[in-house]
């Protein structure tokens, strides 16, 4: 989300699958939408039937490629080169949507002289500290930050990435009072800086290092970039092909820049559709079970950076202009929701009861600590790190160092059984008699056995109604958390030390229902919606939230989902139109297409009849249209702010990106990302070639490798691992397989772990279709069946043939169908903003034959590693 | 009675109706009474638990048991359609390998044991309290820390918003656990 | 009553197999075992007693209409969901000695599982290799055209689930018209080999499951001119009669000598 968040203001898809019918062109990249979002893909087919052109760019020819109008094979890891090539094409040929770019983006802003681009410094931006491996981004800021002597805000912390300010020099910044050049010709204006930054991303370079022929690249560029202007729009869909890389957010930033230049954000048929992969993964980011954020993208306090007291915290994060001016209302209301009556002005509303972030507490971070014996206990609920975690071998070993483990799931999955049937036990690396981990496996309720809501990929909250009770001892997670909390609060009652003050103050009195004593889930959603403290009346939206302790709200961006008793909007099913108004509740405030102010001209009229969405009603003096305006309803298009205006009032009537302090879409991101204001091509952490642009900066300098004996890397290139592999999903299975390999009707559709290789690679290594192969990386060794297919092809990269291998990751050691886990091959690496691992474009070897069994497999692997 | 038996005899029916023995006249009682299994069932409106498209589902149930799950034609997102995984949602909840009892493994043990639910909850609460007791830091260099890094949580993308809310609320805001993560990154 | 029919369109099939699963779930059909075929993504391999929808996967060195996909040579990957054809003149129905296989009020062909005695005559009589015996249960099974659902005016499970409406359900003549419109549309867009598979010229007399395909029927394992074994009935009886008369004649001649 930082890719979308820094570009536009919010970390979420800007549009929805059904809106794709309005697209004139759809670029699907880093995604296999037909296979992984099949029902969403119906909208791509509809668009295609109406004449839209569908383009798919991917290392493999998949079921999505089969339905595309144009397919191009891509070397995994070269996405920024390709997208940069498209940006280059737009800028060199003046194909940008000029009026949109001038008014709605920061293209005209003139950057300070201190800013230096990667083209100036051989691969890094100004502010790079090679020793600490971090950027000081103060030279990227513009506006009042630079002029008027205002000190640049301190970094928000080295560890956080998902919250409103992102990483790097992330704190609140005043970007007003900027020099601009609306002619876009000043050499230091963003438009010209970007043009220079991508000057070398030519079609020739794309051909040489992406593996896409110049002709095909230009055909794609021409097709997609013509879907622009008042009468046309194009959409981009992406998924984990982009995100699971050491520069993931920057890839998304590149797509964002392209869409801003083409004027596609905020318009029907435009936008960026982030295709997320789990039923409520958008929800688990909004109401986060993540370490660095609080609900609604408020930052967790970071020791020593913003955590001294509430006033410091607010000062660091509250933007002087734009919607985040309201920041204090949201944090205070959240604290009131958490701590109820105990949260008072005198105690900073309980701010000091929140735990402080002091390091890398992410999945990767704490699993490494776990391996080193520093984590005693772990709860795992609906996840399966033993199969789906990066470097799953390491993760399984780490589990064996726990003192206690609580697993809650529908089945006995690999994470719960590692102590007796994992490969590590088979290989003698672990012995059950020596594993001290106490394991509790608690059965969980399935979706039809509980009330609650999911938030899907288009930011839509949808309630699922409970149909039947869960079987036996199975319970839902609200039951588990509530009754666990009840017990712990009981213990805290007898222990009044400061550490227990927050726990004791925690509001925890939900009504219990039925023989199972389940908490009433709607009450939790009401708390999330927010209410007035005095009378508990529900608020109708975040506009009613206050910073004086009179309101409580569990997640400000969801406020409005339950505006009054009996009106659970997530449970409404009365769809009125293509975007589904009347069905569910989209955050924020049921706006279906974000930034939709941009669907109107600066003067408020629609860009065209064909692409109208939201427009200014001069008679009633308000914004109106087909969607809820993502804009202050009564702010006129020609509104100009007063000199010292604050908050939303500081943004003019033609500035659609209201979360940003300057209201513009950020082509250049002055803050928020740890690895630079502009996407730059770096090779992956393992690559078959050197970085053609910057020989001195092979890979993302800010990415972390977490190198240790259990987590090694190949060199770039590496004779032991000559091929490039990527992991991915198939339609027939779901993630780690706990919800598909245990089910006969799905297991039989794709029963064996296989990998996809080209006929050329098969011939080179003597591999036959249907045979067995052994796959190895610097992390591990697995075996798979070989599917030899024309859909995989070697690419000519800088004069040498690079073979790519496709590796679906669904298999594990339990279930109706079993197999080795592909994630045994993947390293624990951390992209600098969100700490995601790189699973695409990593180096491997493939050889015919099964791997050795038991301990001999490790010997086989070590022998291969030793071949330098 | 004889007449009833005679008229149910397919060959008699065939003669009487002048048909060729391959139509209605050849139907058994079972066939004649055939009806969809979810006729007269109640319906819960639901959402698919697999990917993030969020297809609408109709969950049919009778007398406390699930009957079938299929798509919800009213959903503007999915229009009644489901992919193979969504189509298999009934099996997801009813297949033979679904766990319904607690499984407990003692340290160093080679096998699972049974455990009562309430006992398991008590034991887990004790483990949490004990670990927190020994590893909690209230402050560092005069600044509030209020956390423990010795206990962690993983999970959330498959859970409900309300569940994730309570997890973060209890674990972070209540217990001071900072090591919380789920499948989401980006 | 209108004739229920399927129109399955390869040009929008994404090979997801929702149809296979929706069918199995609705009809409580068991799995077919967990053998991997190594043939593209098709591990189902054929219609049978416990597979009533089967998605084919065809990797071909031909272009998919105007699609720009091949590198150096044309390439396409297409998918199609096969199903029982519910023939106008059904070989299985004609062969069935017990009256287990009947024609419903929707003009579909239905095997009554409580009447079938497992003789297997239907299995060898189907020109498409659809109906088969379940060897655990001992009787024959095939697509029921969701007869139970149709009774309540509901569409079959596969048609309901299909994400891209590659599988359409409706009235036969209406779907035939739609198929013709679709073929024209596709050909106009450059899918030069778009055609219907709707074999009406042979003894089967037409099917109630028709298809929009790209290329020749043989590529999909569809017989271009499917015949039911009972077309040979007249000549078979005729030959039998002639042979019998011949035998009588020979015997007569032998005894009168």
Question: What can you tell me about this protein's structure?
Answer:
Helices cover 24% and strands 14% of the residues of chain A. Chain A has a six-stranded mixed beta sheet with strand order 23-25-24-29-22-28. The radius of gyration of chain A is 26 Å and the shape is globular. The relative contact order of chain A is 0.14. Chain B has 186 residues and is an alpha+beta fold. Chain B is built from seven helices and eight strands, in the order H-H-H-E-E-E-H-H-E-E-H-E-E-H-E. Chain B has helices spanning 2-8, 10-17, 29-32, 84-87, 89-94, 117-135, 161-174; strands spanning 42-47, 56-62, 65-71, 102-105, 113-115, 137-140, 143-154, 177-181. A three-stranded antiparallel beta sheet of chain B has the order 1-2-3. A three-stranded mixed beta sheet of chain B has the order 6-7-8. In chain B, helix 7 links the parallel strand 7 and strand 8. By secondary structure, chain C is of the alpha+beta class. In chain C, 28% of the residues lie in helices and 18% in strands. In chain C, strands 8-1-10-9 form a four-stranded mixed beta sheet. In chain C, strands 2-3 form a two-stranded antiparallel ribbon. In chain C, strand 6 (132-133) and strand 7 (140-141) form a beta hairpin. The termini of chain C are far apart. The chains are: A alpha/beta (868), B alpha+beta (186), C alpha+beta (257). The interface between B and C is medium-sized, with 31 and 30 residues.
């Amino acid at each position: 989300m930082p890719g979308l968040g820094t570009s536009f203001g919010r970390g979420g898809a800007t549009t929805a699958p059904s809106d794709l019918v309005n697209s004139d062109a759809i670029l699907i990249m880093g995604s296999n939408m037909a296979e992984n979002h099949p029902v969403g893909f119906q909208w791509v087919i509809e668009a295609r039937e109406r004449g839209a052109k569908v383009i798919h760019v991917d290392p493999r020819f998949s079921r999505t490629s089969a339905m595309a109008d144009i397919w191009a094979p891509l070397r995994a890891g070269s996405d920024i080169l390709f997208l940069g090539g498209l940006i280059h094409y737009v800028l060199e040929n003046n194909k940008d949507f000029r009026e949109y770019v001038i008014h709605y983006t920061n293209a005209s802003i003139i950057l300070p002289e201190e800013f230096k681009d990667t083209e100036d410094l051989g691969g890094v931006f100004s502010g790079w500290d090679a020793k600490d491996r971090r950027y000081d981004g103060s030279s990227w800021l513009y506006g009042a930050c630079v002029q008027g002597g205002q000190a640049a805000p301190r970094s928000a912390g080295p560890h956080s990435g998902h919250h409103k300010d992102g990483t790097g020099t992330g704190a609140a910044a005043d970007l007003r009072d900027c020099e601009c050049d609306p002619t876009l010709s000043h050499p230091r204006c963003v438009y010209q800086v970007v043009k220079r930054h991508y000057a070398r991303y030519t079609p020739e370079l794309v051909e040489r290092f992406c593996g896409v022929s110049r002709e095909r690249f230009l055909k794609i560029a021409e097709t997609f970039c013509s879907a622009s202007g008042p009468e046309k729009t194009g959409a981009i869909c992406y998924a984990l092909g982009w995100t699971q890389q050491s520069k993931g957010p920057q890839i998304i930033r590149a797509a964002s820049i392209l869409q801003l230049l083409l004027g596609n954000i905020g318009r029907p048929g435009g936008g960026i559709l982030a295709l997320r992969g789990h039923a409520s993964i958008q929800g688990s980011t909004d109401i986060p079970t993540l370490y660095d954020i609080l609900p609604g993208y408020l930052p967790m306090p970071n020791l020593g950076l913003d955590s001294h007291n509430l006033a410091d915290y607010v000062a660091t994060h509250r933007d002087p202009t734009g919607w985040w001016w309201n920041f204090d209302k949201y944090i205070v209301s959240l604290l009131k929701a958490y701590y109820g009556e105990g949260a008072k002005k005198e105690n900073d509303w309980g701010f000091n009861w929140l735990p402080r972030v002091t390091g890398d507490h992410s999945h990767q971070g704490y699993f490494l600590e776990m391996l080193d014996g520093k984590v005693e206990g772990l709860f795992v609920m609906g996840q399966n790190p033993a199969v789906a975690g990066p470097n799953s071998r390491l993760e399984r070993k780490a589990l064996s160092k726990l003192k206690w483990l609580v697993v809650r799931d529908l089945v006995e999955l690999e994470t719960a059984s590692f102590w007796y049937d994992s490969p590590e036990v088979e290989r003698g690396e672990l012995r059950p008699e020596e594993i001290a981990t106490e394991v509790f496996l608690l059965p969980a309720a399935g979706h039809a056995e509980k009330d609650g809501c999911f938030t899907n990929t288009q930011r839509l909250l949808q309630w699922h109604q409970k149909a039947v009770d869960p079987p036996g001892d199975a319970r839902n997670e609200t039951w588990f958390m509530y009754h666990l909390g009840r017990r712990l609060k009981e213990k805290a009652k007898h222990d009044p030390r400061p550490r227990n003050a927050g726990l004791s103050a925690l509001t925890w009195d939900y009504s219990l229902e039925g023989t199972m004593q389940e908490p009433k889930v709607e009450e939790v959603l009401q708390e999330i919606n927010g209410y007035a403290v005095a009378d508990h009346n529900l608020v109708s939206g975040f506009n009613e939230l206050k910073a004086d302790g009179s309101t409580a709200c569990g997640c400000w961006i969801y406020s409005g989902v339950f505006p009054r008793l009996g009106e659970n909007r997530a449970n409404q099913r009365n769809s009125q139109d293509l975007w589904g108004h009347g069905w569910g509740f989209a955050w924020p405030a049921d706006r279906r297409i974000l930034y939709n102010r941009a669907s109107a001209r600066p003067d408020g009229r629609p860009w065209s009849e064909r692409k109208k969405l939201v427009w200014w009603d001069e008679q009633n003096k308000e914004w109106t249209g087909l969607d809820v305006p993502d804009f202050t309803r009564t702010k006129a298009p020609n509104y100009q702010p007063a000199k010292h205006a604050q908050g939303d009032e500081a943004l003019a009537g033609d500035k659609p990106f209201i979360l940003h302090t300057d209201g513009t879409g950020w082509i250049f991101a002055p803050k928020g990302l740890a690895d630079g204001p502009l996407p730059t091509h770096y090779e992956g952490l393992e690559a078959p070639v050197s970085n053609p642009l910057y020989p001195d900066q092979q890979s993302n300098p800010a990415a972390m490798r977490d190198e240790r004996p259990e987590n090694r890397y190949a060199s770039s290139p590496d004779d032991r691992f000559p091929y490039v592999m990527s992991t991915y999903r198939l339609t027939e299975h779901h993630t780690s397989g706990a919800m598909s390999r245990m089910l006969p009707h799905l297991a039989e559709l794709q029963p064996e772990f296989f990998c996809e290789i080209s006929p050329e690679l098969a011939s080179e290594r003597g591999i036959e279709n249907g045979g067995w192969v052994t796959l190895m990386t610097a992390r591990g060794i697995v075996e798979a069946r070989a599917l030899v297919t024309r859909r995989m092809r070697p690419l000519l990269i800088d004069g040498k043939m690079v073979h790519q291998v496709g590796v679906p990751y669904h298999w594990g050691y339990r279930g109706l169908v079993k197999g080795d886990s592909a994630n045994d091959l993947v390293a624990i690496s951390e992209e600098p903003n969100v700490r995601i691992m790189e699973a695409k474009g990593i180096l491997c070897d493939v050889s015919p034959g099964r791997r050795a069994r038991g301990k001999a497999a490790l010997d086989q692997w070590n022998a291969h590693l030793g071949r330098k | 009675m004889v007449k009833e038996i005679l008229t149910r005899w397919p060959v008699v029916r065939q003669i009487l109706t002048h048909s060729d023995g391959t139509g209605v006249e050849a139907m058994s009682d079972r066939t004649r009474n055939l009806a969809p299994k979810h006729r007269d069932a109640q319906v819960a409106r639901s959402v698919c638990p697999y990917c993030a498209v969020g297809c609408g589902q109709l969950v049919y149930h009778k007398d406390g048991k699930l009957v079938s799950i299929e798509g919800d034609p009213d959903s503007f997102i999915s229009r009644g359609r489901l992919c193979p995984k969504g189509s298999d949602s009934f099996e997801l909840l009813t297949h033979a390998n679904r766990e319904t009892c607690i499984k407990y493994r003692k340290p160093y043990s080679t096998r699972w044991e049974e455990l009562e639910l309430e006992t398991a909850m008590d034991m887990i609460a004790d483990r949490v309290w004990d670990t927190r007791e020994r590893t909690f830091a209230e402050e560092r260099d005069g600044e509030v820390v209020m956390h423990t890094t010795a206990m962690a949580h993983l999970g959330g993308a498959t859970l409900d918003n309300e569940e994730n809310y309570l997890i973060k609320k209890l674990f972070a805001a209540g217990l001071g656990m900072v090591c919380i993560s789920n499948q989401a990154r980006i | 009553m209108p004739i229920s029919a399927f129109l399955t369109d390869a040009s929008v099939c994404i090979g997801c197999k929702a149809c296979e699963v929706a069918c199995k779930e609705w009809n409580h059909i068991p799995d077919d075992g967990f053998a991997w075929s190594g043939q593209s993504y098709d591990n189902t391999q054929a219609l049978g007693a416990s597979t009533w929808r089967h998605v084919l996967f065809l990797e071909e060195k031909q272009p998919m209409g105007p699609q720009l996909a091949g590198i150096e040579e044309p390439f396409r990957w297409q998918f199609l969901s096969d199903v029982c054809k519910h023939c106008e003149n059904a070989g299985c129905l004609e062969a069935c000695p017990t009256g287990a296989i009947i024609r419903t009020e929707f003009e579909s062909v239905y095997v009554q599982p409580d009447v079938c005695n497992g003789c297997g005559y239907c299995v060898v009589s189907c020109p498409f290799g659809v109906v088969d015996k379940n060897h655990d249960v001992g009787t024959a099974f095939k697509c029921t055209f969701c007869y139970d659902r149709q009774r309540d005016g509901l569409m079959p499970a596969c048609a309901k689930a299909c994400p891209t409406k590659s599988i359409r359900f409706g009235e036969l003549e209406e779907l035939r018209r739609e198929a013709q419109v679709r073929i024209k549309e596709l050909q106009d867009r450059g899918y030069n080999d778009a055609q219907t598979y709707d074999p009406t010229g042979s003894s089967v007399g037409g099917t109630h499951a028709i298809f929009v395909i790209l290329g020749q029927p043989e590529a999909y394992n569809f017989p271009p001119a499917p015949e039911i074994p009972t077309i040979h009935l007249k000549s078979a009886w005729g030959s039998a009669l002639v042979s019998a008369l011949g035998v009588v004649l020979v015997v007569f001649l032998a005894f009168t000598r």
